[in-house]
Every structure is written in structure tokens, then in C-alpha cells.
Amino acid sequence: MSLPKKIDLHMHTSVSDGSDSPEEIISHVKCAGIELFSVTDHDAIKGCETITGLLEEGDPRFMTGVEFSCKDGEGQYHILGYGYDPASSPIREAVGEGHAIRMEKLKKRLGFLKDEFGFVFSEEDEAALFALDNPGKPHIGNMMVRYGYAVSKEEAISKYLDRFRAGNAYITPERAISAILDSGGVPVLAHPSYGRGDDLILGSDMDARLRRLISLGLEGVEAFYSGFTEKLQAEILGFAKKYSLFVTAGSDYHGSNKLVRLGDTNLSEGDEYPEGLLRFLERAGFTA
């Protein structure tokens, strides 16, 4: 199978915090001319299971994906997992843990909004939130706008929801990485240069972070990313070469919930693929 000319390995459906259903994602991927794609919903694999059952002969090539929100004493990380077996117990148990933590954070966030700002919602609307597959800040933010507590989802998040601190309510990167590996997948650090919020991790700090995660089993980095400057991209590609890591490319598309276009990975058609990306594609069954 020849190399895909356009890939996007980081996108979200309505199973987590994207606006597009799995069915809509497939349609949009086709329209965008993407030849290889992956859905990486937060702490969830339901979207991947749905897409796998919908794909037909001639459709773009699909790779299972997931994005774990992780934290430990050294910082916060988003760990992507690719090519895992969705029927494998380790990945299913890990997403189950991630989902349980997310639901507990939802409960605490609603309590925080009530206690700190007096924001209350109807029982029906709260029940609708808890009925979602993987509710997060965007879902609460949209509800706050409907109630007039904020003028936009972005304001709801930055002015109110981001003031809530979840503490250690995350799975650890070690847990996520081991679950991905034990399920036959490849663990990859998402948008490596970004820590929490707008924090940038560069130079020796980035080197130390990568060496630590590699010791836990990390195998790749997302070097091509919609939010990266050329300088950030070059630094991550340098680290990928230094540590012989796989390289991936993703837009972080969320549909109408973010101003990111599907396929916008900063990896242009016709660009020469770096060695780490070629090795990753080879693992996925593509050959140069």
C-alpha cells in the first residue's frame, strides 16, 4: 500500500468534545481528501468502534485512536494511542477509569460553579450532561451560555471553569502508556510543546520530559500539529530524531467547537516525510 498523501491522526467526535458524530467525521474526512485518519476521543474508544463498523471498501484508511488526559507529580500530559485492539482488556479498563474520573470531575465542577458563583441549572439539564458519553468543559460552557451566565463558551471556560482545580483527578501517563502498549498500540505524546493551558515546554525541559516518558514506554511524538509554529515543529522533530521516536501528524479537529480545520496538521502534501513518520506509516501497513 503506497504512502498516503494527506493524513490527520488527531480529531474528536461527539463521543468526547467534538461536534461531529462518527458518521459525520467519515463524510468530512472524505471531502477533505484525507487518505489516513484516526479518531482520538478523550478517554473513549466508542467512536472508533462505531467508525470501524461503518467503513466500506474504498473509504479512507482508518487507525484506532484515543487521547488520555494524564497527570502525575511531574506535570500534565495528553497521551495518544494508535493502532490498539479495541477489544483488548487493558485499553477498555483504562478508558473506563478515565470516564469515571471525568464524570466525578463533572460533578465537582457543577458544585464549584454553584458554590463560587451561584450558577445553578435545572435537574433536567444536569441529567442530560451526565447522560453524555464523555462530558467536559465545552459541554458545561455551552449550557452556561444558554443560561446567560457567560456570553460565549470560551468566556465560560476561561473566566469560570478554568478556575476549578481538579487536583489529581487524572490517570497517570504510566497507566495510559502501559494500557496502549498492552493492547498492541503505539503511545504518542500529543502536542508535546504544550503543557497545561498555554504553558510552553521547551529545550532542556522538553528533553527531560521526553526522557522520562520514554522510560515509561512512550514511542512517539506528534511533531506536526495545527497549533505549532515552524520553530516548535523543528524542535520536536529534532527530539524525535535524537530518540528514534515515531512521528505523527494531527489537526486536533473538534468540528464547530474549535477553530481548527480538518486536515490542518502543518504537514503539507508533497512534503518529504521524516524518518519517524515513515516508520510509523510502515507499522500501519504503508510502504514507500
- CATH first level: Alpha Beta
Content of β-strand:
5-15%
Strand arrangement, major sheet: 1-2-3-4-5-6-7
Structural class: alpha/beta
Total strand segments? 7
What overall geometry do the principal axes of the alpha carbons give? Answer: globular
Terminal CA distance:
8 Å
Fraction of residues in helices?
Answer: 40-55%
Number of domains: 1
SS field, number of helical segments? 10
By oligomeric state, this entry counts as single chain
Annotated CATH homologous superfamily: Metal-dependent hydrolases
Largest sheet: 7 strands, mixed
Which series of helices and strands comes N to C?
Answer: EHEHEEHHHHHEHEHEH
Task: Characterize the structure shown.
By secondary structure, the chain is of the alpha/beta class. It has a single domain (7-96, 169-283), classed as Metal-dependent hydrolases (TIM Barrel). It has helices spanning 22-31, 46-54, 89-117, 123-130, 137-147, 153-160, 173-182, 203-215, 230-242, 275-283; strands at 7-8, 36-39, 61-72, 75-82, 186-189, 220-225, 246-250. It has a 7-stranded mixed sheet with strand order 1-2-3-4-5-6-7. β2 (36-39), α2 (46-54) and β3 (61-72) form a beta-alpha-beta unit. α5 (137-147) packs across α6. The longest helix has 29 residues, at 89-117.
